[in-house]
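Protocol step 4 of 6.
Sequence for Inter-alpha-trypsin inhibitor heavy chain H3 (Puma concolor) entered exactly as in the expression construct, tag removed. Do not edit the line below.
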Amino acid sequence: MASAWWPCLILALLSGLAASGFPRSPSRPLGKRSLPEGVVNGIEVYSTKISCKVTSRFAHNVVTTRAVNRADTAKEVSFDVELPKTAFITNFTLTIDGVTYPGNVKEKEVAKKQYEKAVSQGKTAGLVKASGRKLEKFTVSVNVAAGSKVTFELTYEELLKRHKGKYEMYLKVQPKQLVKHFEIEADIFEPQGISTLDAEASFITNDLLGSALTKSFSGRKGRVSFKPSMDQQRSCPTCTDSLLNGDFIITYDVNRESPANVQIVNGYFVHFFAPQGLPVVPKNVVFVIDVSGSMHGRKMEQVRFSLRLGLIFPVKEEDYLNFILFSGDVTTWKDTLVQATPENIEEARTFVKNIDDQGMTNINDGLLRGISMLNKAREEHSVSERSTSIVIMLTDGDPNVGESRPEKIQENVRNAIGGKFPLYNLGFGNNLNYNFLESMALENHGLARRIYEDSDANLQLQGFYEEVANPLLTGVKVEYPENAIQDLTQSAYQHFYDGSEIVVAGRLLDEDMNNFKADVKGHGAINDLTFTEEVDMKEMEKALKEQDYIFGNYIERLWAYLTIEQLLEKRKNAHGEEKENLTAQALDLSLKYHFVTPLTSMVVTKPEDNEDQTAIADKPGEDTEASYQPPQTPYYYVDGDPHFIIQVPQRDDAICFNVDEDPGTVLRLIQDPITGLTVNGQIIGEKGGNSDSKTRKTYFGKLGIASAHMDFRMEVTPEKIILWSGAAQSTFSWLDTVTVTQDGLSVTINRKKNMVVSFGDGVTFVVVLHQVWKKHPVHQDFLGFYVVDSHRMSAQTHGLLGQFFHPFDFKVSDIHPGSDPTKPDATMVVKNHRLTVTRGSQKDYRKDASVGTKVACWFVHNNGQGLIDGVHSDYIVPNLF
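Step 5 output, structure tokens:
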């Protein structure tokens, strides 16, 4: 793969997507010698077991995979696990030929320093993070000698939440090859008794599932076992590939003779509360709907569908509702809330059907109008005193007109609601400011949901509405005897919805007390209610002795899990000393209980060619999705069709322009005679047929990076990366995850994502791989090119990108509506030229090549003429080097 001067292999840990652990083997073919069935490229995965132990909703999962290298040479084995985003990794061990290498949880900064120290000593490592919709992905790779065995074991824990009347355990199954001993085993113990238990798999027929799956429950215990034979794993009777590829879901619920249940073990308690059979509290629902131009197309279709669902699931005749539409202005369906009579619902359906998109995004005024309407209805007694109010906002983006500062909008909304009712934010698409939507919802006792533009978006919306359709209690407070408890988790809730569950945990001050009492108070549809649960400690101790499936001090760990989760949630809206205190508390608990959280990392050290190598497993957040984290410095890049984006730091703004050249043209992007660095790019795109420059799509399909001082060249295409050091050549593919180093140079390829090229203390380039779909205009993959630390280039740098590394400024005036109402035009003075520009946005794909982050910029027309020095033809060169 690489010649001797590229000595570095890496250990990559991906903390990011469900629950299964399966090696993937290298793609090189083996020799002709016969190997046992189930061996792929020399690696036999002879055992994979997922062991789940659930006690009182708290799940402890262990994923173990064992493999042996049956090839004649060393092979790389990678262990992939997808686990729920709500789970915390608690342990990972790697065992090679009987020697175990454990993972240790450390503070994130400490782990990062250990990682960087290993890298600086030439003990190379990889740090990769990935995040999906429901799942996070953990991956570790290791070289295994010929004939050697390796065992991977990952442990994670989570509190199973109750949704729509059931607890769900979600396991991702994807072994990628036949496994001799494959098993999923789940043991469940619930002191309240199990009422229902089921399991299903998305990847196998019911007939086949029936013979491989067993499930049973009786009293407090339940068990699920899935053990497909190798024949049952085959995708067809004569195939050698596995059909096990999809979701394995276990669902169950418990008996509810009493609405509440309290359990106590070793001085820690947990209190579950889920009443049934109560009348539904009437609702006053205001839908605040983004109808700006960016909602055009698929997102607006989803919004219309969402509102039609909203008129079906959560709305009953005793409810009241209204629609607030916002773009640049705010309009309403009705002046006040109207009752959800059949006639009004039919009129609302017609209104929803005709909603159209146009204009800018005034989130602030839209929300304040809706909140004001709810407050006024309450003040004027036009709605039931026992009803509850809800605001549901549907949007896809950032505010860009009126009050557009997120922190000020949050303040305005918080003051207007005053803690009286919740705000739910539904965010559509991938390029929205989700942190803003989530933060605003959380501080107003609601939640945010990202609605992905996938085929199941309608199911996502349906799931949300079903959750909030039926509030049974409002103003719920859980109370305990004074001076009897400490370290209590959240005990007050705005709503209790049918099918959900409130969970409170804490510590007892007196572990020797004989009785324990808990009260839950709330406002119902008809009257105020108090539910009292009294616990006899001796009876509790007797019942808990029957727990065959108990693991450690499960209630203490459940308390720690819930406390950390809630501290991290509060931290999102905290500032200054409050945020520091919340961070310190969450960090202390994460370290004490060995949880990988956003504040900690798991450090794994393993042997590699007689040297230790270190890597880090991180838990990503909602918007953390890639291996390369862009620094907060000026950015200059070219990506897409091809869009050049130039940041002007002193303006906190950016300028963008396109180029239009024929496919095959090579353009000089950067040339620095002092550092000796040159970067050229070759255009690909539609050939023949379409010569209209306004519609023709072109991209960069090949990049050449060269250093004259180091006698180094690199050719990058969407298929491969070729490196030359003098006459020595090395070739890599985008399927590799590898770091290569030599004096003053580091090249890191992140599999199928991006490549980072760093020239010692000098500049860093990032090349992003775009893998496109069949209907894409160019029908082929292409590249994006980004420059980091451009200030390390000399003042003599030039080229289509390089010329902008020198300080320059611009001034914008006369902003006025353009031909597109969502994109205003303006006059820009730059480089002594007066240009007409249009406000728009481009994408920064450093974080995620498939989605990208929106970057606002002023678009310069006519291929950047007046902005760039000279004309485009001045930058055309004969070849890459």
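Step 6, annotate. The mean pLDDT is 81.
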